[in-house]
Automatic annotation (TrEMBL):
Keyword Nucleotide-binding applies: yes
Pfam family, one: AlaDh_PNT_C
Sequence ranges assigned to domain Alanine dehydrogenase/pyridine nucleotide transhydrogenase N-terminal in this UniProt record: 4-137
Protein name (database record): Alanine dehydrogenase
Biological process, per Gene Ontology: L-alanine catabolic process
Record EC number: 1.4.1.1
Enzyme class: oxidoreductase
SMART domains tied to this protein: AlaDh_PNT_C, AlaDh_PNT_N
Active-site residues, Swiss-Prot/TrEMBL: H96 (proton donor/acceptor), D270 (proton donor/acceptor)
Keywords per UniProt: NAD, Nucleotide-binding, Oxidoreductase
């Protein structure tokens, strides 16, 4: 198969869809890999690193899209990119379609086959292609939150760990999944007073076992959310309903009830965000303030630690890229129901139930779409 890796063009996105080591595996399987010039340079992978592994460098995104049967990316295609997609083309990348009607329509109109990393499921549960970036974003969320609490950003000037004689900050993490666990691990490590809120009692039980008295666990209901949010210096939003738009768990009233100079980091912003006051921001201008509360809502947080993130992403995606390239998408999805769970759009049809229901499209099950 001809596999194309264009340079990412989302603002301040420095990751790339494939490492040189990943390109080497594809070439060893008999595939051709076309990489746009400088696609990996911000992550520390020069063009020569790809050519040394048998990949071919092309001088523009157009040339990569023209040459490829499968496009492997990191972020959802921007409008110039989905206009380049062809009806016979396979797209494998993060999509986050539920809160993004425009991109969904663009993919439908292109006629392409679009598989979203974030809805591929794991044989042992979980979301194996979302997890590595959730690990990165969870860890980064505490760094971002710490910076947001600094005076220079508009924060109250609070140090997460406090110092002897001055109490640590209160950090509330909403959602104790992969992002939440990595966030609370960093916050506990820095000495903050940490509370995690989840609707899964089993998950709260596991976290309680792991962290004991260093962590407060709270069941997710409106009353508990209200107190855990308004009492916190920093709130990290990390909920997910796979494939669907994030639930708006934190209302504007709760935000207004926080002390001025407090901060929120909405990691779930890529699925629309779980704070009513959230709107997407970029690494260039990551924060804004509502009711005195600093908001950080960057939709591609791992993009700022591109080298770590690109290794972690390719480690997870490569086995699936190889299945798609070796077998072709129809056979690969038929053989692997977990990979088939990633199929979001197939030749003009929406094949993910939550995306279809959030955006008012007709839902066509993946099995029916593949059989047609
Ligand atoms: N902004 C960015 O750059 C990035 C964003 N993300 C996003 O972070 C979000 C979280 O991802 P993961 O941690 O991997 O998901 P996950 O599935 O591992 O965890 C989600 C957690 O939310 C909990 N939850 C669901 N409904 C809840 C409710 N009403 N109240 C409290 N908890 C609730 C679940 O029980 C689960 O423990 C996703 O939207 C993901 O796309 C991930 C990576 C990067
Ligand atoms: C998960 C995602 O959207 C990201 O890593 O940017």
């Amino acid at each position: 198969m001809q596999v194309g890796v264009p340079k990412e063009i989302k603002a301040a996105e420095a990751r790339v869809g494939l490492t040189p080591a990943g390109a080497r595996e594809l070439v060893a399987h008999g595939h051709r890999v076309f990489v746009e010039t400088n696609a990996g340079s911000a992550a520390g992978f020069a063009d020569e690193a790809y050519t040394a592994q048998g990949a071919e460098i092309l001088d523009s995104a157009e040339a990569v899209f023209d040459a490829a049967e499968m496009i492997v990316k990191v972020k959802e295609p921007q409008s110039v990119e989905y206009k380049r997609l062809r009806a016979d083309q396979l797209l494998f990348t993060y999509l986050h379609l539920a809160p993004d009607a425009e991109q969904t329509q663009g993919l439908i109109d292109s006629g392409c086959v679009a598989i979203a990393y974030e809805t591929v499921t794991g044989a042992n549960g979980g979301l194996p292609l979302l997890s590595p970036m959730s690990e990165v974003a969870g860890r980064l969320s505490v760094q971002a939150g710490a910076a947001a609490l600094e005076n220079v950003t508009g924060g109250a000037g609070v140090l997460l760990g406090g110092v002897p004689g001055v109490p640590p900050a209160k950090v509330t993490v909403i959602g104790g999944g992969v992002v939440g666990t990595n966030a609370l691990r960093m916050a506990v490590g820095l000495g903050a007073h940490v509370t995690v809120v989840d609707k899964s009692i089993d998950r709260l039980r596991e976290l309680d076992e792991l962290y004991g008295s260093r962590l407060t666990t709270l069941y997710s209901n409106t009353e508990n959310l209200e107190s855990a949010v308004t009492e916190a210096d920093l709130v990290i939003g990390a909920v997910l309903l796979p494939g669907a738009a994030a639930p708006k768990l934190v209302t504007r009233e709760m935000i207004a009830g926080m002390r001025p100079g407090s901060a929120v980091v909405d990691v779930a912003i890529d699925q629309g965000g779980c704070f009513e006051t959230s709107r997407p921001t970029s690494h260039a201008e990551p924060t804004y303030t509502v009711d005195g509360v600093v908001h950080y809502c960057v939709t591609n947080m791992p993009g700022c630690v591109a080298r770590t993130s690109t290794f972690a992403l390719t480690n997870a995606t490569l086995p699936y890229v190889l299945q798609l390239a070796d077998k072709g998408y129809k056979q690969a999805l038929t053989d692997n129901s977990h990979l088939a769970a990633g199929l979001n759009v197939h030749k003009g049809q929406v094949t993910h139930e939550a995306v279809a229901s959030n955006l008012g499209h007709t839902y066509v099950p993946a099995a029916d779409a593949l059989a047609s």
